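Feature request, filed as a ticket because there's no other form

It would be nice if the structure record came with a short human-readable summary line next to the tokens. Right now we just get the raw output. Example of a typical job, pasted below so the devs can see what we mean:
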Amino acid sequence: MSPVLRRAKKKAAERVVTLIGKPGCHLCDDARAVIEEVCTETGASWEEKDITQDEALHRAYWEQIPVVLVDGEQHTFWRVDAGRLRRELGA
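Raw output as currently delivered:
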């Protein structure tokens, strides 16, 4: 019987939050404010990607923006809940 391997849970400071949006999007502005606040509190880093500058992102997410990824996996879209994002980051 092989042992069950578990991924070590990353600390918040090792996590990366990605906001996928576009200029002029008020929901993206709201999401950015929440992400900045939570990442500042937890020590996680964050980045922003513009669907108008990336055709693959545009095709994948144009109906859902803003989209939030955590470590490359979709966490949420449209509205960002600060408490849920904190929990995802382990805070």
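Something like this underneath would help us a lot:
The CA atoms of residues 6 and 90 lie 16 Å apart.
The chain has a mean pLDDT of 91.
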